[in-house]
């Protein structure tokens, strides 16, 4: 029989936003691998999963939050080898990620390494940043005849202005360290609507107007922006 794992999207934090299908797979899995970026053991994904299964099923796996490609590659390769062992032992393994597993997710890199070891991935979609933001803010992502763009926050203002002008709606992710670039671009473009959301769906969820005076100097990592030009 072909070996495979499930890669499950958990939504952005509200445990009620996990799909029924995801819950059923979590319940029937023997082992759930949960990525953790804090050495202190904090993990939003873990908190969500614990609403549905016991701690004994969890296998926390540390992923460094840096751009050291060599370290990241060896982390993914190491985990893929471990996952293969679990699959060879006949275990049903699930890997969980925040939001959707196909959007800026560790899951994509892990699945590529698993593929090399002949382990397939079945993806279970999760409610992601894009639809969480649009629904929370109550504005459509797109309507008939329009389009939208989703980007990692660029490092320069000109590129940001160009992207905002290119689409009726633009979503920027990983905004935190580059929020001043976004604020400058917004001042230049004067869009109809420019909001930043911190911790959507989590305790402490806050919506800011990107032109407002109360904007934090550096929002938390879990921050995204929606601009309507
Ligand atoms: C590594 S990406 C993960 C994206 C996720 N896979 C998805 O489908 O939305 C992390 C970025 O997603 C966005 N994000 C994740 N959770 C968020 C939340 N609760 N509120 C706002 N933005 C969030 C932020 O832009 C953050 O920097």
Supply the key terms.
elongated, Cobalt-precorrin-4 Transmethylase, domain 1, 2 domains, alpha/beta, 229 residues, Methyltransferase, Cobalt-precorrin-4 Transmethylase, Domain 2, 5-stranded mixed sheet, 33% helix, binds S-adenosylmethionine, 5-stranded parallel sheet, single chain
Describe this structure in words.
It is a single chain. A hairpin with a 7-residue loop joins strand 8 and strand 9. This protein has 2 domains: 121 residues, Tetrapyrrole methylase, N-terminal domain (Cobalt-precorrin-4 Transmethylase, domain 1), CATH 3.40.1010; 100 residues, Methyltransferase, Cobalt-precorrin-4 Transmethylase, Domain 2, CATH 3.30.950.10. The termini are far apart. Helix content is 33%, strand content 23%. The longest helix has 20 residues. By secondary structure, it is of the alpha/beta class. The structure holds S-adenosylmethionine. The site of S-adenosylmethionine has 23 residues, from strand 10.
């Amino acid at each position: 029989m072909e070996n495979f794992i499930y890669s499950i999207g958990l939504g952005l934090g509200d445990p009620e936003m996990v799909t029924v299908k995801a819950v059923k797979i979590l319940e029937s899995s023997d082992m759930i691998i949960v990525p953790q970026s804090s050495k202190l053991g904090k993990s939003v994904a873990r908190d969500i999963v614990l609403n549905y299964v016991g701690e004994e099923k969890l296998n926390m796996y540390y992923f460094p939050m840096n751009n050291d490609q060599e370290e990241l590659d060896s982390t993914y390769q190491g985990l893929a080898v471990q996952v293969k062992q679990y699959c060879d032992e006949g275990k049903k393994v699930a890997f969980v990620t925040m939001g959707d597993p196909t959007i800026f997710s560790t899951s994509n890199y892990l699945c590529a390494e698993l593929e090399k070891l002949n382990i397939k991935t079945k993806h279970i979609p999760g409610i992601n940043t894009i639809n969480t933001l649009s629904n929370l803010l109550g504005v459509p992502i797109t309507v008939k005849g329009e389009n939208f763009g989703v980007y990692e926050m660029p490092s320069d203002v000109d590129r940001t202005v160009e992207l905002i002008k290119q689409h009726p709606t633009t979503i920027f992710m990983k905004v935190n360290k580059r929020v001043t670039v976004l604020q400058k671009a917004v001042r230049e473009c004067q869009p109809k609507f420019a909001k930043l959301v911190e911790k959507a769906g989590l305790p402490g969820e806050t919506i800011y107007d990107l032109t407002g005076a109360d904007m934090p100097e550096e929002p938390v990592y879990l921050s995204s922006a929606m601009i309507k030009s």
